[in-house]
From TrEMBL:
CDD domains, per the entry: homeodomain (cd00086)
GO annotation terms (biological process): central nervous system development; neuron differentiation
Source organism: Leptidea sinapis
Signal sequence extent: none
DNA-binding region: 3-35
An MF annotation (GO) of this entry: DNA-binding transcription factor activity, RNA polymerase II-specific
Protein name from the UniProt record: Homeobox domain-containing protein
Cellular component aspect of the GO annotation: nucleus
Assigned keywords, A-Z: DNA-binding, Homeobox, Nucleus
Length: 57
């Protein structure tokens, strides 16, 4: 969110522009952390369910 949008939102919510900026920064960090956790969980599931290396194949 940049300039005029941030100013408009800050005014509408009766916050400072800095507060709005920090809120969005925190939200992005939270999203990235969640996305990383989900990705790691998916990889763990895939690794558990992959066929083991077998010599008879």
């Amino acid at each position: 969110m940049v300039g005029p949008e941030r100013l408009y939102l800050a005014h509408a919510l009766q916050l400072t522009e800095a507060q709005v900026k920090v809120w969005f920064q925190n939200r992005r960090i939270k999203w990235r952390k969640h996305h990383l956790e989900v990705t790691q969980q998916r990889l763990a599931v895939l690794q558990r369910h992959r066929p083991e290396d077998r010599e008879d194949i």
